[in-house]
Design a protein that fits this description.
Layout: H1 14-21, H2 29-57, H3 60-113, H4 119-203, H5 206-218, E1 225-229, E2 232-233, H6 242-250, E3 255-256, E4 263-265, H7 267-272
Parallel strand pairs: 1-4
Antiparallel strand pairs: 1-2, 3-4
Helix pairs in contact: 2-4, 3-4
Length: 273
């Protein structure tokens, strides 16, 4: 009886070997750090481009804000001075009314003094006439003072109005210039901000991200991540010891510059972006 031949074992094909080799291996700690550093470098580059747009605007936003504050102060002065002028004008009117009343009483008392029956009535009417004359003199003095002060207030109002118009013209010019720059850069800035938000999620470590923003906010040029540059920190340009440079190139952990506190990365990571 013929023996049944056992089927020969199939040798794994090159394709299967390639597929087996391509199965994703767990990321090593070094790879995770390198990936995070690369993400930080990409985020830094994006934020630096946003900084360039803000530099293009220059001091315009601050100038606009200052002019708006000046206008608000001038408007307050105008309102207060106008209110004071109105009060003075009302006071002048009130004093003129007092003078009119006093003159009416004077005419009345002078008419009565000719028909007095005794010295007592005469003395009383004489005192009333004297009192009303004093009241008229006092009111006339107040009117002169109020009128002089009112003229000063009106001069102030004219001065403040002139200043307000000049500053309003400055504001219009600065706003127009700022709006023009914003219009030119708005689309690019929005795109970059969305890209930065996406890159922040790629870092996957809230503590590292918070540390990055803290350094960036404290740096004058906004650089929190810098490469090695001629064996020195790319931020403060202090020399980095050879051992430290080696640690940076190994990507085992984030290395912080001991002088400026920035995160230093291997320049090769920037080339890999």
């Amino acid at each position: 009886m013929a023996k049944k031949e056992t089927p020969a074992k199939k040798e794994p094909t090159a394709k299967k070997l390639e597929d087996a080799a391509s199965v994703a291996q767990p990321e090593t700690a070094e790879e995770r750090v390198a990936k995070r550093l690369t993400a930080l470098a990409r985020l830094q580059a994006t934020l630096s481009r946003i900084d360039e747009i803000e530099i293009l605007r220059g001091e315009l936003p601050l100038e606009v804000e200052n002019i708006e504050n000046d206008l608000a102060q001038l408007q307050t002065r105008l309102d207060n001075t106008a209110s004071s002028a109105k009060t003075l004008s009302q006071s002048v009117t009130a004093e003129r009314s007092k003078i009119a009343q006093s003159r009416e009483l004077l005419d009345k008392y002078k008419a009565q003094i000719d028909n007095v029956r005794n010295n007592r009535e005469y003395d009383n009417l004489s005192k009333e006439i004297e009192y009303q004359e004093l009241e008229i003199t006092l009111s006339e003095k107040k009117i002169r003072e109020y009128t002089q002060e009112l003229q000063a207030r009106k001069a102030d109002i004219a001065k403040y109005k002139e200043q307000f118009e000049l500053r309003a013209g400055d504001l219009k010019a600065k706003k127009s210039e700022l709006d023009s720059i914003i219009q030119e850069t708005h689309e690019d800035e929005e795109k970059l901000r969305k890209e930065a938000a996406k890159q922040e999620k790629e870092i996957q470590d809230p503590r590292v991200l918070a540390f990055f923003h803290r350094i960036r906010n404290g740096a004058r040029n906004g650089l929190a991540v810098v490469p090695i540059d001629r064996e020195s920190c790319g931020g403060c340009f202090n020399r980095i010891p050879p051992q430290r440079q080696l640690e940076i190139k190994l990507h085992k952990k984030e290395i912080i510059c001991e002088y400026c506190g920035r995160i230093i990365i291997d320049p090769d990571l920037l080339k890999m972006q």
